[in-house]
Structures are given as C-alpha cells and as structure tokens.
Amino acid sequence: MNSNEFRNEDVTKILIRLDSIEERIAILESNGLNVKQLQDSGEEDTEDDDSGYTDLKLSISAPFESNIGEYGLAWLGNIVLFFAIVFLWQYFNDAGKPFISLIVGGLSVAGVFVMSHYFRRSFTYLSFMFNLFGYIILYYIILRLHFYNDKPLLPNWPLAVILLLTVVGVQFYFAVKKQSQLMAGLSFLLALFSAFVCNQMFVFFLISIAATALVMYSFWRYNWWKSMAFALCFGSLLNLYWLLANPVSLIKTPGDLTYHYAFIYFSIITAIYSVITFRKSNEAFPDNLILSTLLLAGTTYSLLLLSLVFIHFSTAYVPFFIAISIYCVAYSVILKLYSPWKYSPALYALFGFVAISVSVFGIYHFPDAFLLLICQSFLVLALALWYRSYIITLMNTFLLVTLAILYYNLSGTLQSVNFAIPVVAFLSARIINWQKERLHIKSDFIRNIYLFTLFFSFLYATYFGLPGQYITVSWLLIAGIYFGLSIYVKSIKYRWMAMGNLLVAAFYLFIVDLAKIDLIYRILIFLAFAITTIVISTYYVRKLKEKDESITS
C-alpha cells in the first residue's frame, strides 16, 4: 500500500510539472510571435523611410545586363531628365518669362521628388536617383536666379547664397538621417561650389572652411571617407583654379593683403585635414587612407603655395615659410606624443625642415646659404634620432647630397662650405652607425652614401683649400687618418677609403706634381708617400700573420 501511494504521488508531481512546462512553452511562443510581428513592422517602417535614400551598391552576383538595366539606365535616365528640365527652364527664361521659368522649375522639382516617393518600395534604386537629382535640379534653379544669368530674377547675391546653402543644409540633414554617404558627398560639393560662385573673397574663404570642417566631422563621426576624399580633390582643384584665374579682381583689396589672406586660408584648410592624423584605425576605412590624405593635402598645399609665391610674392615669401616651419615642427612634436600613426610626425617634420631651408635661402641666398643648409642637415639627423624615423634619415641623406651637388655646380669656392660638407658627412655616418637600431636601419646603404660624400668632398676641399705643393701630402695625411679610423672603429670601409685616397694621391703625384712643383717639394712628397705606403704595408703583413697564427692554433 505504501508503495502504491508513493507511485501515485510521483505521477501527480510529474503531471503538474508537465502542465507547467506546457504553459511556459505557450507563453514563449506567444512572445516570439509578438517579437516577430514587431520586427516585421519595424522593417516595413524602415523600408518606407529609408527606401530611395540609402546608398545602394551594384550586385556583383547579378548578371551584367541586369546591373546595366537597373543601375546604369537609372543614372542615364535621370541625367537626361536633368538636362530636359534645364533646357525647359532656359527656354522660358530666354523668352523673357522668368516667372514662368521659375514656376516650371519648381513644378519639375516637385514632380521629381513625388516620383522618388512613389517608387520608394517597388523601384528602390530608381527612387534613390530621383531623390538625388531632385536636389541637383533644385540647386541649379536657385543658382540661376542670380548667378550666370544676364537678367537675374534675384538681384540680391547674399540672399541667393543663403538659399543655395539652405538647399545644401537640407540635403546634408537627410544624408545624416538616412546615413547616405553619396548624398553627403554631393552636399559637400555643392557647398564648395556655392562658395566659389559668390565671387566674394571672404565669403569664399569662410564657406570653404566651414564645409571642410563639416567634411572632417562627417568622417570622424560616420567614417565617410569616400566623401572626404572626393571633397578634398574637388576643393583642391577649385582653390587652384580660383588662385590662378582671378588675379585682377583680387588686387582691388585695400592694402593689397588679399594674398596674405589667401595664404592663411590655404593653411587653415590644410590644417583641418591634418586633424585626420589623430583618428584611430578601424575597419570602416582602409589603413592607407590616412597616409593618402596627408600626401594629397600636402601636395595640394605645396602647389597652391608655390603658385602664390611665384605669382605674387617672388621677393617676400620668407615670413610665409617661417610660419610654415614653426607650425609643422611644432605639430610634428604633438603627433609624436599623441598620434597613433607613427609615420605622421616624420612627414610634418620633413615639410617643416624644407620650409626652414627655403627661409634660409630667402634670407641669405646662394652661395652664402649653403653653409647653414649643410649644418641644418646635421641638425635634422639629430632630430631624427628623437623621432626614431628612418624616413627623415633617408630624406635628409638625399638632401645633403643634393645640396652638395648644387653647391659644386653653382659655386664651390667657399672654403667654409668646402670643409663643412665632409665634416657633416663624417659625423652623420658615425651617428648612423652608432644608432642604426634606434633609426630602424637594417643595411649600410645610407651610411655608404655619407662615406662616399665624405671621400670626394674631402678631396675637393683640400684640393681647392691648400697650396698646390701641399695637396698630395694632405691626401696622404687623410689616408693615414682613414687607416687610423679603420683600426679604432674596426671598420673595413675606412681602409678602402684610405686605399682610394692613396691611389688618387699617386695619380696626382705622377701626373701633376712632377710637372709643376719645385724639386725640394718633389723629394719631400716622394718620401712622405713612400713612408705612408710602407707603414700601411707593414700593417697588412702583421694582420695576415695574426690571422694565420689564429688559424693554425
């Protein structure tokens, strides 16, 4: 009896448990159905709101014909529609009926936006194109109310600019709302073009600066790097065209300060793009974007600055380059401390050093400027140690070689520069050999360039800096110095340089000295040459014996 009672109680508990489980399953199924309904309704709302606005991409898996039919013809049809509306507007405007042309334009814009809304579900990409070209048509109609019109319907240009910027602002608002990078890029383009067409210098500067800041904000906030790259390219071409195409109207500025303001404007635009160096890497944009943007912005700024200097400040450009050098060097220090991109400090430091070189040239001119420029090369190498930058070291090496070649071609007569070049080359080679790990140098390529420069520049300096009877002796002395250095620093490179110096000295001794110098000097030189070669020969004999003994032992 007891066992039957226990069994009945167990069965009752199991049944109660099953009922509880069934109730929970029913509740979960009910909740899941509600969630699915909410998701479906949310998707429908999203489709209803975002359709025609988001950036749609070509389907790679779709057939080529389908892509052409759906996307290519949508673009072509809207472009043709744009020109049709423009020609229709132009027809009534040329006929002396500006109000009718305005009404026709307004109705056309409204019709395009209505079609965009109507096709938002069934033809999403076509709806998107209607919406995009609707803003373009609206912008064009407002633009022609005052600009590029012999009989403007709106004679007040500030109001026309405000209306244009209003269209741009509305477009950017919807671009942010619908997360459409293409619409944002179009709004940036139209904003820059609005600044250009107003033909007022300060308005052009202010609108362009504000638009550039908005471009950088959109990249920082939404990772819209494609629209940023497009705006940078278009803005660069626009600035260059503005600078080259308007020299007459710009001179009318009181006090002739127009181009000083232009320099400030170009610098501010470039500085805004320089902020990109503080952006951390993520998967939303490619890693090489930062470097590409910096190089493009720097190249554009250099072209604008060179155009500005050559056309308007060919004799008064030093203050500009001093300001650039101070900014670039200071900014490179900030980037060294805070930027996540290790190459960015080197780029700005190099640009700053180039600006310093141009400033030195502008103050002292050639050939007097060569001494400071050569010494600056050594200073740049010292700073490269702090930056730990291989790029600065490499560029500084070629800068020294370029300066040396330029100096020898233009002058070559200043003894201070003649001896400064080998001294700087020698010290630079020693620093590079000493700190190659800090500078991330894995080969002797850069050091060999400095040693090559040292070898020939030292021969040149002594040849032109000493009397003829002492040239061979000085070259023998230099060969001895090289041999001593090879023993002290244990480097075969200096021994090869010593041997090269001996060969040059021997050639000069038999070709020149025998024909020009007095007999007493000739005897002394031959004795000195003989002693030097014999001493070096004994060194090699000892070295070979020590090597043989170490092998046999």
Tell me about this structure.
The chain has helices at residues 2-50, 64-94, 98-118, 124-144, 157-178, 181-197, 201-222, 225-245, 247-250, 258-274, 289-312, 318-338, 344-364, 369-387, 390-410, 415-434, 445-465, 471-489, 492-516, 519-552. The chain is mostly helical and 553 residues long. Among the domains are: 1-42; 473-553. Helix 4 runs antiparallel to helix 5, helix 7 (201-222) packs parallel to helix 10 and helix 17 runs antiparallel to helix 18 (471-489). The chain is elongated. Mean pLDDT is 78; it is low at 33-53, 248-255 and 548-553.
* Shape estimate: elongated
Parts with pLDDT < 50 across at least 5 consecutive residues: 33-53, 248-255, 548-553
Strand segment count? 0
The number of helical segments is 20
> What gap, in angstroms, lies between the N and C termini?
106 Å
Overall pLDDT metric: 78
Largest sheet: none
User: Helix and strand succession?
Assistant: HHHHHHHHHHHHHHHHHHHH
Task: Give the class from helix and strand content and strand pairing.
Answer: mainly alpha
Strand content: under 5%
- How much helicity do the residues have? over 70%
Nearest-angstrom radius of gyration?
A: 38 Å
